[in-house]
Amino acid sequence: LKAVMKVDTKPGIKIMDTDKPKPGPRDVLVRVKATAYCGSDLHLYKWDGQAVKWNSPVPRILGHEFSGDVVEVGKNVTMVKVGDQVAGETHIPCEQCYMCRTGRMHICENMKIFGVHVPEGSFAEYAVIPETIAYKLPPETPYDVGALYEPCGVAMHAVQRAAPNPGDTAVILGCGPIGIYVQQIMKALGSDVVATDIKKFRIEHARRVGAAREVIDASAGNVVEKIKATVGQRGADIVFEAAGAGDTIRQSLDIVAKAGKVVLFGASPDNPTLDTTTYIVYKEIDVLGLTGRYMYSTWDRVQRLVTRGLVDLKSVVTHQLPLEEAEDGFQLLLKGEASKVILNP
Ligand SMILES: [Zn+2]
Ligand SMILES: [Zn+2]
Description:
The chain is of the alpha/beta class. About 30% of the residues lie in helices and about 25% in strands. It is built from twelve helices and 18 strands. The longest helix has 14 residues, at about 150-160. The N and C termini lie close together (about 10 Å). One zinc ion binds near residues 96, 100, 108 and 110.
């Protein structure tokens, strides 16, 4: 079994042969056909502060966004069968804690993230996953599309948390893959959508596929004025902060309309200082946080929009590589020269 591995706690990867995993009684073995890079894979590649915080085990296989065919099932598996095409949910919940038993498995108290907290990952020819995180895809879903349900699920979750009203104006700060999916979903709901980014590559990519009426270059300054000139001086009804920077978190509070909603889901390393009295209390805004995806309502909603052509999952893909060229994918992403990169093992 060929796999992209992390063998020690230093930057870099190794492509090597390892034993084909055996499914346990409630596990399924998947022949991985497409698997996409995510921000967390870059943290693990660099082995930066975030990777250290996750306490990710090594040696390990990288990757967690994937789809493929079920080729073997454990003896107690009931929900999927050999031949099913599945995508991998990343959250491995304990199924026993308060959050798991009250409808929010995706923020389980004892959460393990596939590809991060366990040695298994999807940048390999085969992956073993618990059947609880195998999502059965509709027949004839292209493998590359199947691998992108997971990141689009985060975008769907952000929109579900925001619970938009008809005619809401929406600003999306950040045009990475998830920011682009939020733009497409909000447009499908009839919102007026405006987006920003600071990276030239992402701005141009969003202008091509992002579904925003306007993509503003935030690196040129005066972002707040530019956004208000576009959506109206009252500000935006909903602001999605998908960049995870101190600057964009502050901007989100500034550009949201009074009584509007700010949805935060970018992980910011810099913990910004905020004027909460001026921007949250007096403006009476709702600040909503989120991580990951509802299991599995986000998946079903993504499926419906994808099936109806309202969201184009592959639109974020800028590069596709064979497993052997995984290093090139990391380099492209580290240089900011790619949006979503897919490996086809
Ligand atoms: Zn991911
Ligand atoms: Zn739990």
